[in-house]
Amino acid sequence: MALTNKVTIVTGAARGIGLAIARRFVEDGAKVVMSDVNDEAGEAAEADLKALGEVTYVHCDVSERLDVRNLIAAAIDTYGDVDVLINNAGIVSPGDILTIDEAEFDRVLNINLKGSFLCGQAVARHMVDRVKNGGPAGAIVNMSSVNAVFGLHTQLPYTVSKGGVNQLTKAMAVALAPHGIRVNAIGPGSIMTDMLASVNDDPAARARILSRTPMARIGEPREIASIAAFLADEGASYVTGQTVYADGGRLPLNYTVDVPEE
Ligand SMILES: NC(=O)c1ccc[n+]([C@@H]2O[C@H](COP(=O)([O-])OP(=O)(O)OC[C@H]3O[C@@H](n4cnc5c(N)ncnc54)[C@H](O)[C@@H]3O)[C@@H](O)[C@H]2O)c1
């Protein structure tokens, strides 16, 4: 397996998409460092995945530079290196331009965008040093969203942060290409995680989502994990600076589709 022994850091890995990515990488033989701010869930997930392979949990708030530094150091202490970074941690916070307050805007941007910058910079510097010393390059995958493209006005800081993640991905990819390090992003549509739970529990909100989803269903976290595995792997060796959208056909649709009554 191409991911065998690849030391992989996954942020926001205690649940949802991050947990599915950690699971997929452990199953594929990677040595996975899971990190999160929810230590109880993170440690429980670590205990589950240990039955499948090499995994360790480390506390890390991605918006805190010292936490990020500790995370990279822990990966290197535990497994000797970092081959892959999955910048997955993210939050939502409702509010439009008239209602969102400055502190909340900062909080979302600090986690979703600055967190990816801090982790990306620390790992990129490690990878570049390794390449200069004759070692292999690595891969970084950022978690974007279809809302990097759509203007989700009811989630202003979120949509701004994900637009930023796409630009961060491109600028990192170009800067790191001479070192052989690839940087890509994934742009999920609606995926069945706790982040989406309130929407899924509300039939009208669910119908609104499905009316914009030609594939007529909400996605599963493992369907995002498989893209992360592809982008981190040698199979994507000539792919960099891209955002791969997994949205059941939402972005190509400029209309709505009929939703059967439930
Ligand atoms: N679920 C969706 O429909 C969807 C769609 C598009 C993009 N995404 C993106 O996918 C990623 C994961 O989303 P999810 O649906 O699994 O969400 P989730 O809320 O289920 O999980 C997010 C995880 O991130 C952790 N986290 C929160 N703040 C953190 C911080 N400061 N530092 C480290 N970890 C932190 C949480 O504790 C949680 O374990 C996010 O970046 C999200 O924006 C999700």
Automatic annotation (TrEMBL):
<dbReference type="GO" id="GO:0048038">
    <property type="term" value="F:quinone binding"/>
</dbReference>
<protein>
    <submittedName>
        <fullName>NAD(P)-dependent dehydrogenase (Short-subunit alcohol dehydrogenase family)</fullName>
    </submittedName>
</protein>
<dbReference type="InterPro" id="IPR002347">
    <property type="entry name" value="SDR_fam"/>
</dbReference>
<comment type="similarity">
    <text>Belongs to the short-chain dehydrogenases/reductases (SDR) family.</text>
</comment>
<dbReference type="InterPro" id="IPR036291">
    <property type="entry name" value="NAD(P)-bd_dom_sf"/>
</dbReference>
<dbReference type="InterPro" id="IPR020904">
    <property type="entry name" value="Sc_DH/Rdtase_CS"/>
</dbReference>
<dbReference type="GO" id="GO:0006633">
    <property type="term" value="P:fatty acid biosynthetic process"/>
</dbReference>
<feature type="domain" description="Ketoreductase">
    <location>
        <begin position="6"/>
        <end position="189"/>
    </location>
</feature>
<dbReference type="GO" id="GO:0016616">
    <property type="term" value="F:oxidoreductase activity, acting on the CH-OH group of donors, NAD or NADP as acceptor"/>
</dbReference>
<keyword id="KW-0560">Oxidoreductase</keyword>
<dbReference type="InterPro" id="IPR057326">
    <property type="entry name" value="KR_dom"/>
</dbReference>
<dbReference type="Pfam" id="PF13561">
    <property type="entry name" value="adh_short_C2"/>
</dbReference>
